[in-house]
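Hello,

I think I submitted the heme C job twice by accident. Can you confirm which output corresponds to this input? Input:
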Amino acid sequence: MSGQRRWMALLAIGGLAFCAGAADLPPPAKRKVDFAKDIRPLFQKRCVRCHGAETAENGLRLDERSAALNGGDAGPAWEAGESADSLLIHMVAGVDPDVLMPPDGEKLTGEQIGLLRAWIDQGAEWPEE
Ligand code: HEC
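Support: Only one job matched these inputs. Its output is below.
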C-alpha cells in the first residue's frame, strides 16, 4: 500500500511540473514586434507603477533601459532569445500562481504575453530614447 501511495505522489508531482512547463505559455506572436509601439506602452500602463523610479518592487525597473536590463533581485528578468525560460514571462503567465504579474487588475491577455515573448525571442531590443 505504501508503495502505491509513493507512486501516486510521484505522479502528482510529475503532473504539476508538467503543467507549469513552457507548454502552457501562450505562443509568441508571429509578427515583428516594435518595442516603442507594442511593449513600452504595456510596461507603462501595467508595470511601471510598481517597477519605476519611485517604487521598484524587488529592485526591478521597467521604465528605463539600463536599469531594466540589470533586472531585479532575482537577476535579469529576461534573456534575449529565451522567452520560455524568462522570469518575466513566467510571472505574467502565472506559472507560479502565487506570484502573478501584475498582481492586481486584469491578467495580461494571451495576445499581450505573446507579444512580450516575441519581443524577447526577437532579441529584446530596447532602443535608447
Ligand atoms: C501592484 C504592484 C505591481 C505591479 C503593477 C507589477 N508588479 Fe511585478 N512585482 C511586484 C512585487 C510586490 C514583486 C515582488 C513579488 C515577490 O517576490 O513575491 C514583483 C516582482 C516582479 C518580478 C521579479 C523581480 C525579481 O527580480 O525578483 C518581475 C519579473 C515582475 N515583477 C514583472 C512585472 C511585470 C512584467 C509587470 C507588468 C506586466 C509587473 N511586474 C507589474 C509588484 C508589482
